[in-house]
Task: structure prediction
Amino acid sequence: MITDVSIEALRQVRGVLSQFQTEIQGTGYRARQRSDALESEGRNEVKKTESAVAAVEKKLEDLEADKSRTEARIRELTAKQNRLEAEIPRTKTEIANAERRVDALDNQLTELDYQLKDAEDTDTKDAIRERYYEVQAERSKASDNVGRLKNELDRLESEEFENKRQLGTAKAERDRIEGEIETEQKRLNNLKSKLQRQKNALSQLTNELHEYVNAAQRFEYSSAGQTEQNRNAVDQCITSIEMYLDTDL
Amino acid sequence: MDSSEIKRDMRDFQDSVLRLSSGIGNASVLWRDPQFQALSRSVSGVAIQSRDLLAAGDRCVNAIERFQRISEESY
Result:
């Protein structure tokens, strides 16, 4: 009875040991596969972050170039604005002078008109008329000059209006670019911090994975040997008992 | 990246060790002699060794999850 029970127990133990052996077979290999896959995935994640950092750095370079171009444009428009702001009052003064000149010539013509009416002899009248025509021609030139200067003032004021508009647009553009640079710079700082932390985390993960693979391989090797040894011992016991049971007394 | 495969491997592995321990433990009802005590000690040794692997697995899972949290940061 004791022998029968022992055989049953031994067979049960043998089955348990065999099942365990089968189950743990390949533990080290699986651990290595997982480890390789995770390391590779981790390196890819780091590469993605490196690419993101490079893309933001490139974007910042482009934005800085845009900003430089816009600032150059602002300097150019500001210089033009300063020139226009000096030129417009000068032209206004010139117009005022030219108008005064026209008024003066008008007065001269009025005076000559009176003189002509008061003149008695023909020579004097001819001389006054000649002078009158000269002043009239001069007045006509002065009046043309007023017109030309007023046109010039209109042109300058239109130019100033357009220049101010362009200057406003360029300044708004510079503000927009500066805002974008600030945003991208923050993004770059965050990404660089992420990259550094990710690299550290990957290094730690790699170490832990190596430890895990080593532990799995060590376990598989030692427990497989031990289990095999136990199973062989149990097999021997079963064989011995079976031989004993087959023996005729 | 996720830690589910390693977690599953660990669970399977832990289940195997538990099945081994309980299988051998069940046999103790039918087998009581010094030989069995030796076998039982040997199996206990295997279970103790398995703790190293489980601890290494836990550290791996933590490291994977930490790495994953960082990787998921979006800027």
Notes: Chain B has a mean pLDDT of 90. The longest helix of chain B spans residues 34-71. Chain B touches chain A at residues 1, 5-6, 9, 12-13, 16-17, 19-20, 23-24, 26-27, 29-31, 35-36, 39, 42-43, 45-46, 49-50, 52-53, 55-57, 59-60, 62-64, 66-67, 70-71, 73, 75 (CB under 8 Å). Residues 4-71 of chain B form one domain.
